[in-house]
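== Folding task for one protein ==

=== Format: two labelled lines per protein ===

==== Paired sequence and structure tokens ====
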Amino acid sequence: MPKMKTHSGTKKRFKVTGSGKIMHERTNRRHLLEVKSSRRTRRLSLDAQVKAVDVPKIKRLLGMR
């Protein structure tokens, strides 16, 4: 059997923590930041945990299965 390749787009967008959680960056933090409040941009700067429904698919794309 050939080895499974990691999906390049997925490895750029997600990271796995030491405890095994899959994290992603929030959207809306790239441009037009003058319009957004400081409170909003601070909140958007934090990474978010991937929803449980999406975890199996992302793990498969990362080659973790």
